[in-house]
Amino acid sequence: MRRATQAALRRWAVRGVVLAAAIVVAQALRAMYLRGSTPGLEGQLGVRAFEVARTSFLRGDGFPLWDRSQCGGSPYLGNPDTTVIGTLVAGLFGVRGDAMVRGYLLVAAIVGITGGYAWARRALLVDRLPAFMAGVVFAAAGGVVFHGGFRLHFAAVALLPWVLALARMGERDVRAAAGAGVALGLVGLEGGLYPLAFTVVALLLVSVPRVFAHGVGAATVGRVLGLTLGLGICLAAVKLVPMLDLITRYPRVFAEKDSPQWPHFFAMLGEAEINRPAGVNYSADEYRGYVGPLVVGMGIAGAGTALILKPRRWDLFFLLVGSMLLTRGVSSPNAPFVILSRLPLFHQMNVPSRWIIVVDLAIAGAAAVALHEAIKAVKRPHLVAILLAAGVLAAADPLAAARKLYKDLPQQAPLPKLDPLARPYHLEPGLDDLARKAENPMKNLGTDSCYSLSLELPPARALRMGEVPQAWVDAGTLSKVLVRQNTWVLDVDAPGPTVVHFNQSFSADWKPSIGRVAKSPALMLDLALPAGRHHVVLQYRPRGFFTGVALTSLGVLATLTVLAAPLLRRRRRA
Fold first, then answer.
1. What is this structure's pTM?
2. Cis before 277? omega within 30
């Protein structure tokens, strides 16, 4: 009993040391970004989303389902770029958007480092120091740092190694499989289309070779996949169901042609100052995936080692090769990316070079395998010291490059401190799409300009600008017009059938207490009312919202049941 207690204490002590080291490295990684400033350009979108939530809660409107700060109004919850848990934290605790982004990226870095460590330890079976190197390399990789710092919803890829680690542990413990489902659900709630797609595909790639592994088999893999995917989809359904409905109604159409060649691919991994490769379609930043020449060399050696030495790590090899082929994009008519793009959800994705994020994880794991096997093979202490120094240098190189990349990302002045209750809501023309977009919610402003990365929403025309009435009626009078985040409240006195016009973009998901919503010729929201005096409450409820809430509640209940079942069985035996 004493030995078991000592072993448990030792395990928790090691975990505490790993967590403390991850916090130190994560702080060092992010320290060059957002010192008393806010993100610039597309980084404003993440700040603005948090500000929408914060100001909505401050006004007493609760969780924002509708976003009034852009495009004459647009869906908030169903937008793939929305972070649901982050929104709740910013709203419930009143955290300002710029501070929220700083904390969000710090937490994401800690999660990425510890997740990479857990995956390397549990799935790749390497020692602690090579495993920690893998976690640092993944969290500091160019694809993870650039996309996470520039597009906040990409930060959810930090959970990818946790899903893989817990799924592997789930082959022996059903609670770990449930944990993988929770991690996947968080990816769905916090990430856009890309993090979710990366995670699901990576999970499938590492699961295929496990079907043929000794002592595992198809039944075990099927159980783990079913539990992980089932719980993950259910837990994220409150966002996924409205999101899938909106994507179906407003699909994006891509004629993707990008096909980075193998020289481009190795430049992504090995060149910190990457230039736009010739013959590709996107800006140079889209091709960032820097892990450093040393990690690339170790990764190549580790990939060979994974196939030759026991225990063979076929899942790592599948992950590395599969993600590399996806990064190649439209390299042939039947390339993996082309086939994947024919599936629902995946057909909404472009920029195949972003799959370099999954390559970064795989190459970090392969480098850890190479270092682990090299340390095992040598017997002399000075050679072990040289190998450990090589591991430190391998992690330090992408870490230094990531700090420089963070420093070079666009940054702007801090958000002003304004009272979001001071001014009545109205629209202003000429608000730049990105420059100071995060200030709109706290100024209680909207604009007719749109910048929605993941939805093709048709913006309304003829919106009224300035401090003018936000609703007007064809015949009759309006009184007590109240504009809230998800609701309109107004009193109408109509001598005959009439139409109320609202100064916002149309959506069929607005539900009136009386009358019928319609789309005006200018794509604005109209409400047809019968004659008489009416107290009208018009609420925005995205299609599939209540279904999503029910499925998420079911997922929470199922997760608690799976986690509690072993404890209940032990209690019965006792």
1. 0.93
2. no
Please tell me the predicted confidence (pLDDT) of residue 512.
Answer: 94
| Cα–Cα distance, 504 to 249 (Å, whole number) | 19
Report how far apart, in Å, the C-alpha atoms of 29 and of each of 25, 47, 147, 241, 351 are: 6, 20, 15, 35, 26
- Whole-angstrom CA distances from 13 to 5, 125, 166 are 12, 20, 20
Report the distance separating Cα 252 and Cα 248, nearest Å: 9
In this predicted structure, what is the pLDDT of residue 452?
A: 59
Task: Dump pLDDT digits (tens) for 183-208.
Answer: 999 999 998 889 999 999 999 999 99
The enclosing H or E element of 555 equals helix 545-573
Is 539 in a helix, a strand, or coil? strand
Contact 257, 337 (CB under 8 A): no
Positive or negative, the CA dihedral 170, 298, 141, 114 is positive
3 state DSSP class of 351? coil
Rounded to whole angstroms, how far apart are CA atoms 285 and 316?
A: 27
pLDDT band at 26 (very low <50, low <70, confident <90, very high): very high
Structural domain boundaries of the chain?
2-30+96-410, 39-95+417-454, 471-540
Tell me the average pLDDT across 122-127: 94
Distances in whole angstroms, Cα of residue 101 to Cα of each of 87, 288, 295, 438:
11, 22, 29, 12
Average pLDDT, the chain: 89
Listed in order, strand segments (DSSP E) in 159-214 are none
Strand partners, 500: 473, 527
Task: Tell me the pLDDT tens digit for each residue of 408-439.
Answer: 888 888 888 877 777 889 998 866 666 677 88
